[in-house]
Write a structure and sequence with these properties.
binds orotidine-5'-monophosphate; TIM Barrel; eight-stranded parallel β-barrel; pyrimidine biosynthesis
Length: 280
Amino acid sequence: MTADRVEPFGARLAQRVGERGPLCVGIDPHRELLTGWGVGDDLDGLRRFTDAVVDALAGTVAVLKPQMAFYERFGARGIAVLEEAVAAVRAAGCLVLLDAKRGDIGSTMAAYADYLRAGHPMQVDAMTVSPYLGPESLAPAARTAKDAGGGLFVLARTSNPDAGTFQHARVGERSVAQAVVDTVGGWNDGGVGSWGSSTGSFGVVVGATLADLDVDLDGLRGPILAPGLGAQGGSVADLRRLFGPDRAVVPTVSRDVLAAGPDATALRAAADRWTAELAG
Ligand SMILES: O=C(O)c1cc(=O)[nH]c(=O)n1[C@@H]1O[C@H](COP(=O)(O)O)[C@@H](O)[C@H]1O
């Protein structure tokens, strides 16, 4: 299949969500979780943890989101563990959202976006990116994503407590967060912000921990990645309060599911509980 015939990420995401529900589980091998699982805080522990999560969940959830930082801790061998896992996840029909939060000048962004291209040793379906260098800096990554049928999730209103310090700052009439949402909405030409074959391929990150939704998402025309559930205090009720029933929201949970491991049945049960609550 040539790159230009790959189905756009938004359509692929909507299809998986239709089949499996919207839950994304983060693969975050924290030191505390490795220890809690009774595996070492070392390369072998990293591999056992990763394999167990992939075996338990890649056939069940729509999206798995490995966090690059936890693999980079172990150098090239850690990245190799992730590379194998990414291939296994995709082979199981689950989408991979690489949580790398990259952001740089345009020419370097173009290189980061190669993660989305067929033939990359660690090809993924989508990645998280940071807009701190300005909206134009991300444009090359958006072009690659369009070409390759990949997706981007741009940090807009993140889940950490002091996120508003920068994200509420004003750019003319708008907040920085709103400027990010508007930029991403511009990339989603012809897309929609609900689930379906036209769901946009470009999303934003908006935390489930927000007291109020202080950005207007009506022009986004793409999905919303909503972290902050469980360990950071966000709930399904918060998702409903913030986003309502119709938007294409991908709730993402890491520690609250991962703490149930290493038993595969327990991991699946923990993910299933979120899926059931999200559907209820
Ligand atoms: O982009 C993200 O995934 C992200 C954005 C954000 O605003 N807040 C946030 O917590 N995350 C990530 O989502 C995950 C949350 O993990 P838990 O708090 O354990 O569910 C971590 O991997 C974070 O890096």
